[in-house]
Amino acid sequence: MDQARAPSGRIYRKKSEGLNQYCTAKGSKVGTGGKVAKFLVAISYDAGVVLCKEYEHMTGQYFASFIDANFDQMFQKSNKATRLFLQDNDPCQNSRVAKSAWERANAELVAIPSKSPELNPAENLFKAVREDLRTEAQEKQIEQETFAEFKERVRGKILSFPVPKINNLIESMDKRLRLIIERKGQRLTY
Fold first, then answer.
1. More confident residue, 19 or 181
2. CB 3.0-4.6 Å disulfide test: which of 11, 29, 114, 176 passes with 89?
């Protein structure tokens, strides 16, 4: 409850900062207790959330085995002719072993700059889920829950995220790209 009532801070960039090198500093997303619920999430237009898997520690080898185990099923659920994968330049996702796994999965990579949430619809999904979790904690007056209960609440919010809202996030990408270009790399409203 105290985390839900705490004011939200900007954790990626200040309004006056653009996409220049070295201007981003990622803040901590750890709440009380110091634990973080980590999920790999894939979304697709008209299909919604096609994958939501919890993980503990991300490495290049783990991500490569994740690709091998999940990408075929994920792309089948998305029901698209192309196998596009958008990633944000996480070092684990760019490792040699991960790149080999992409090739085995016949996935076409679309890379965006790291720490650029305006360009990543999944980051916008996470933001909306965080807001929903905060609102739910206040409305239901959740004073305390176990970490397992919290993870299930997070998973439930992700999996139940409405397909039309995911479609809107993806459709808004063209507009966001135009705004970033117009503002010469300045931060949007994320």
1. 181
2. 114
Reported as a single tens digit per residue, the pLDDT across 103-125 is 999 988 888 877 777 888 888 89
d(CA 42, CA 49): 6
Going along the chain from its start, the domains and CATH numbers come out as 35-182 (3.30.420.10)
The pTM (predicted TM-score) of the whole model is 0.77
Of 79, 73, 98, whose CA–CA distance to 87 is shortest? 98
Side chain identity at residue 58, one-letter code: M
Q: What is the pLDDT of residues 17-64, one digit of tens each?
A: 454 444 433 444 555 567 888 999 999 999 999 999 999 999 999 999
User: What's the per-residue H, E or C state across the chain?
Assistant: CHHHHCCCCCCCCCCCCCCCCCCCCCCCCCCCCCCCCCEEEEEECCCEEEEEEECCCCCHHHHHHHHHHHHHHHHHHHCCCCCEEEECCCCCCCCHHHHHHHHHCCCEEEECCCCCHHHCHHHHHHHHHHHHHHHHHHHCCCCCCCHHHHHHHHHHHHHCCCHHHHHHHHHCHHHHHHHHHHCCCCCCCC
